[in-house]
Specification:
Elements (H helix, E strand, L loop, with lengths): L3 E2 L29 E4 L7 E4 L5 E8 L3 E5 L6 E3 L3 E6 L5 E6 L6 E8 L5 E8 L3 E7 L5 E10 L2 E11 L4 E6 L10 E2 L5 E5 L2 E5 L6 E5 L18 E5 L8 E5 L5 E5 L5 E7 L2 E8 L2 E8 L4 E8 L1 H5 L2 E7 L5
Parallel strand pairs: 1-16
Antiparallel strand pairs: 2-3, 4-5, 4-26, 5-6, 7-8, 8-9, 9-10, 11-12, 12-13, 13-14, 15-16, 16-17, 17-18, 19-20, 20-21, 22-23, 23-24, 24-25
Length: 324
């Protein structure tokens, strides 16, 4: 999982963030039917999908050991033996994968056109640095990666890399003083967000300049997009002063707008503007569920075995309906 950072400056908040633009490349929407999707390698876990769902499960994995990608138009998931992670672009056309091993002394991003099967290898950083935790911009044109390097046996976050998919280029930006668990992901308006102390910080993607600080907002729920589809709210883990675990931040003011009465173990992005996707403890195991903003479970998406969750299960979704 990714999360956080450090550095200081702005404490002001701009006007609300606009909804995402149309993705650059999309696949035809697959025929949506109700189905219980078998998820290989998860100990019998099934994902309960319905026609009209606003998001589509496209990838999942167990840590960096096992990574699975859904077929472009069907329901089958195939193990990606050469990848430690994979993420599908908005619109579903492209898949960005991080390889398990360096290639010619460099880390890389493998971008595959899911319609044609053609893969492009884009170099990111030189060994011994790594660039991972791929985050697609909402327009589907760029991928952000968190850059790390092991120093005296400990991984250190150095900054981020931005991959321009069409240009097939990558640019690395170093930021001093980042925390060990920092990580970068896109805001709806094309900037990069990471944890900063007890809140968040927003950086300009071109040079890492600090654009905004969400002070004392709590750390992001990431690694999936913590901003709602409309961009009006941001999900965080509540600051320590609150009893609740999950908070909703007004993206225009940076203030805690609401607290959710639930205790999810993880949040995997937003279902729609009024619901999030979370993992909750259930009996001796867990459940993947849709939660409303009061914390009520409105739908169970999958039962998760305890050993599967303990193996660092992660999930990745692509939105199938426009922002609210």
């Amino acid at each position: 999982m990714i999360a956080t950072i450090a550095i200081a400056l702005s404490l002001t908040f701009p006007t609300p963030i606009a909804a995402s633009p149309t993705p650059a490349a999309s696949l035809p929407a697959p025929a949506a039917v109700r189905a219980d999707l078998e998820l290989p390698g998860t100990g019998g876990m099934k994902y309960r999908e319905k026609a009209g769902d606003p998001v589509r499960l496209t990838a999942y994995g167990l840590g960096t050991r096992d990574t699975y990608l859904r077929s472009a138009t069907g329901n089958a998931f195939a193990r990606q033996k050469t990848l430690s992670e994979v993420s599908v672009s908005p619109g579903g056309r492209l898949a960005a994968g991080v390889p398990r091993a360096y290639r010619s002394g460099h880390d890389a991003l493998l971008v595959t056109d899911r319609a044609t099967g053609e893969t492009t290898t884009i170099r990111t950083v030189k060994k011994p640095m790594t660039a991972s935790y791929a985050s697609w911009s909402r327009d589907g044109r760029k991928v952000a990666l968190t850059v790390e390097q092991k120093v005296s046996g400990t991984w250190r976050v150095l900054g981020f890399a931005v991959v321009d998919v069409a240009a097939k280029t990558a640019r690395t930006v170093r930021i001093a003083g980042l925390s060990a668990n920092a990580g970068f992901w896109w805001s709806p308006d094309g900037r990069l967000v990471s944890r900063h102390g007890a809140g968040l910080r927003v950086y300009r993607a071109s040079d890492g300049a600090v654009m905004r600080t969400y002070a004392d907002a709590g750390p992001p729920t990431g690694p999936e997009d913590a901003f709602s589809p409309s961009g009006k709210r941001l999900a965080t883990w509540c600051p320590e002063r609150f009893r609740e675990q999950l908070c909703l931040i007004d993206s225009a003011t940076g203030k805690v707008a609401a607290r959710v009465g639930a205790a999810p173990r993880a949040v995997w992005g937003w279902w729609d503007d009024e619901h999030v996707i979370g993992v909750l403890a259930h009996e001796d195991a867990y459940r993947l569920a849709v939660l409303d903003l009061k914390g009520k479970v409105t739908r169970v998406l999958a039962d998760v075995p305890a050993r599967t969750w303990d193996a660092d299960l992660w999930l990745s979704f692509v939105r199938t309906s426009p922002a609210s």
